[in-house]
Specification:
The chain has a single domain (about 20-155), classed as Roll (Bacterial Protein-export protein SecB), CATH 3.10.420.10. It is about 40% helix and about 35% strand. The protein contains three helices and four strands; from the N terminus they run H-E-E-E-E-H-H. Strands 1-4-3-2 form a four-stranded antiparallel sheet. A hairpin with a 2-residue loop joins strand 3 and strand 4. The termini are far apart. The model has no long low-confidence stretch (mean pLDDT about 90). Homotetramer, a dimer of dimers. One homotetramer interacts with 1 SecA dimer.
Length: about 170
């Protein structure tokens, strides 16, 4: 009887959601300082703009996914670009027994949340190597960004459905 209980427990564990970080890596990094050294002569009061995006792709049937967090940081002094940093911080994640909206949330919010500190550190390092003051990006709420994207997709789908009904 104990063997049957162990076998049943083993089957139950196989169906439990599983998540594992397998690798974090820098996929792409670009730094430009087109107005150096003239920009160093000015008082440092930049306007900093951050654009971010996430993407993911399934690598195989064993539940491995690549998630890529893309960030573009632009620091301007008036109309002049002081520096521009573009980075793609990526990770390979093993995700099993998770489907639908829960999988979408993991790939669109949870995994980027793990990747962000690595991207932030890489950006700060390259900005310092460009002889600029440290840039520590504020934390990002990927859950809110994911929820907004999901809502926008639902609204677009509803709009398309209405358009198709009218034709």
């Amino acid at each position: 009887m104990a063997e049957n209980d162990q076998a049943a427990a083993g089957t139950e564990n196989q169906n439990q959601p599983q998540f594992a970080l397998q690798r974090i890596y820098l996929k792409d990094l670009s730094f430009e300082s087109p107005n150096s050294p003239a920009v160093f002569q000015e008082q440092w009061k930049p306007q900093v703009n951050l654009d971010l995006n996430t993407s993911h792709s399934k690598l195989n049937d064993e539940g491995q996914y690549e998630v890529v967090l893309s960030l573009t940081v632009t620091a301007k002094m008036g109309e002049k670009v002081a520096y521009l940093v573009e980075i793609q911080q990526a990770g390979v994640f093993a995700i099993k027994n998770v489907e639908g909206q829960q999988l979408g949330h993991m790939l669109g919010a949870y995994c980027p949340n793990i990747l962000f500190p690595y991207a932030r550190e890489a950006i700060d390092g390259v900005v310092n190597k460009g002889s600029f003051p440290s840039l520590m990006l504020a934390p990002v709420n990927f859950d809110a960004i994911y929820a907004q994207a999901l809502k926008r997709k639902q609204e677009e789908a509803a709009g398309q459905a209405k358009e198709e009904q009218t034709h």
